[in-house]
Amino acid sequence: MDEFTISWIGALAGLAIAIVLILKKLNPVYALFVGAIIGALIGGAKLEQTRQHEYEH
User: Fold this and answer.
1) Domain positions in the chain
2) Element spanning 30, H or E
3) 1-25 pLDDT, tens per residue?
4) Which residues in 1-31 are b (16+ Cβ under 10 Å) and which e?
5) Which residue of 7, 14, 43, 54 pairs with 35 in a disulfide if CB–CB is 3.0 to 4.6 A?
6) Which class for 48: exposed (0-12), middle (13-18), buried (19 or more C-beta within 10 A)?
7) 0.85 exceeded by pTM
8) pLDDT at 57 > cutoff 50
């Protein structure tokens, strides 16, 4: 798997998005999941890089 770095701006944006979604009464699990994906995309990751593990079985 290729190494990549996500900028701190993406991390903060993802956290802010998750907090807003939680305050809008979205389930916290879903809010954190959406915030993490969007933050990674803002931080410079590609969609396929947002997965933590790749299964090759």
Assistant:
1) 8-47
2) helix 28-42
3) 556 677 889 999 999 999 999 999 9
4) eeeeebeeebbebbeebbeebbeeeeeeeeb
5) 14
6) exposed
7) no
8) no
Two tokens, residue 54: 């790749």
Answer yes or no: are the C-beta atoms of 28 and 46 closer than 8 Å. no
CB count, 10 Å around CB of 57? Answer: 2
Rounded distance between C-alpha atoms, residue 10 and residue 32, angstroms: 14
Mean pLDDT of 21-48: 91
| Average pLDDT of every residue of the chain | 84
20: enclosing H helix or E strand: helix 8-23
CA dihedral 39, 44, 47, 48 (to 10 degrees): -120
